């Protein structure tokens, strides 16, 4: 692990367990970059990206990346029956930020994580100067949201590939090496650098008597996909800060129509990036460079 990265934990007063997070301590601690990961992953998955952003910002900014409920090393109870929407993740993020005494920050996130970040900003408890959304699951206007919600319900009746695929994912292994061999070149991992796959497993496997197990259970991941938020457009209407959206050129969760739509709004900058939905992992250097450039432009 990069020498500047420290794994820490913060306990929650109202329930058992704690949030686990990574911290890269910078010279300036007053306005950290806070990162939120995608469904089924964990903050350690993005270690290559976090390190590059940290170094490109000359180690001046502190970066904090949290494992969300049901993911990574965070131990808060994750009961799929109680997960009704992504609001749960936004509530958790608010609790985490309060416990960390963070009042001013720059938010960035990938996929679901960027939507969680935007929802926290909307609630208005924090001074957030910039938002960076990496291929967000973004429904940008009422028509798109309503159409997508109806389509999603219809697809769920016929079995959504992501929901079913997540529910069937193998989550138990005898050794770390066995898990690595199992996932290498498979499904979404086929375009990932080996180092990122190992980071994902390092941050996402926990020990049990019979070996190792994914801390993000297939059922919890599946339920997260199933409860996707369709009201993002309402949240975006509340945000009056500089926002960068990086959209994947292939297999994006944000449509090209949405890209054109939001590009016309003054506070949005939308850039298409070569790669799949996982471009922050596939090409961490390019992603970090675009993040650094945006932050420098808007924080002179």
The number of distinct β-strands equals 11
- SS-derived structural category: alpha/beta
Counting DSSP H or I runs of 4 or more residues, the number of helices is: 12
State the order of secondary-structure elements, H for helix, E for strand: EEEHEHEHEHHEHHEEHHEHEHH
- C-alpha geometry: globular
Low-confidence stretches: none
The major pleated sheet works out as: 8 strands, mixed
Strand order of the largest sheet: 1-2-4-3-5-6-10-11
Q: Approximately how much beta-strand content do the residues carry?
A: 15-25%
**What portion of residues is helical?**
25-40%
Gyration radius (Cα, Å) is 18 Å
Terminal CA distance:
31 Å
Mean pLDDT across every amino acid position? 91
Task: Give your account of this protein's structure.
With 300 residues, this protein is α/β, with parallel strands linked by helices. The chain has 12 helices and 11 strands. The strands form 2 sheets. It has an 8-stranded mixed sheet, with helices on both faces. It has a 3-stranded antiparallel sheet with strand order 7-9-8. Strand 8 (205-208) and strand 9 (211-214) form a beta hairpin. Helix 6 crosses helix 7 (194-204). The longest helix is centred in the middle third of the chain and has 16 residues, at 142-157. The chain starts with a strand and ends with a helix.
């Amino acid at each position: 692990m990069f020498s500047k990265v420290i794994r820490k934990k913060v306990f929650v007063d109202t329930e058992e367990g704690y949030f686990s997070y990574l911290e890269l301590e910078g010279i300036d601690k007053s306005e950290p970059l806070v990162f939120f990961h995608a469904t089924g992953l964990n903050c350690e998955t993005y270690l290559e990206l976090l390190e590059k952003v940290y170094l490109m910002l000359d180690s001046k900014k502190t970066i904090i990346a949290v494992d969300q409920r049901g993911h990574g090393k965070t131990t808060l109870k994750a009961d799929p029956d109680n997960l009704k929407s992504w609001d749960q993740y936004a509530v958790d993020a608010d609790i985490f930020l309060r416990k960390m005494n963070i009042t001013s920050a720059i938010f960035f996130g990938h996929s679901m994580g960027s939507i969680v970040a935007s929802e926290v900003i909307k609630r208005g408890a924090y001074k957030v100067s910039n938002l960076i959304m990496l291929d967000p699951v973004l429904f940008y206007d009422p028509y798109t949201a309503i159409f997508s919600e109806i389509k999603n319900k219809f697809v769920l009746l016929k079995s959504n590939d992501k929901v079913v695929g997540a529910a069937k994912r193998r989550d138990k292994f005898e050794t770390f090496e066995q898990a690595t061999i199992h996932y290498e070149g498979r499904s979404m991992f086929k375009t990932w650098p080996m180092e990122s796959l190992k980071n994902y497993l390092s941050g996402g496997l926990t020990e049990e008597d019979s070996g190792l197990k994914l801390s993000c259970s297939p059922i919890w991941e599946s339920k997260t996909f199933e409860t996707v938020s369709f009201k993002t457009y309402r949240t975006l209407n509340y945000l009056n800060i500089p926002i960068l959206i990086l959209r994947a050129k292939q297999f994006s969760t944000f449509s090209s129509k949405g890209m054109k739509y939001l590009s016309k709004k003054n506070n949005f900058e939308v850039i298409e990036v070569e790669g799949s939905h996982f471009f922050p992992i596939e090409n961490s250097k390019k992603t970090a460079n675009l993040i650094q450039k945006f932050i420098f432009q808007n924080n002179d």
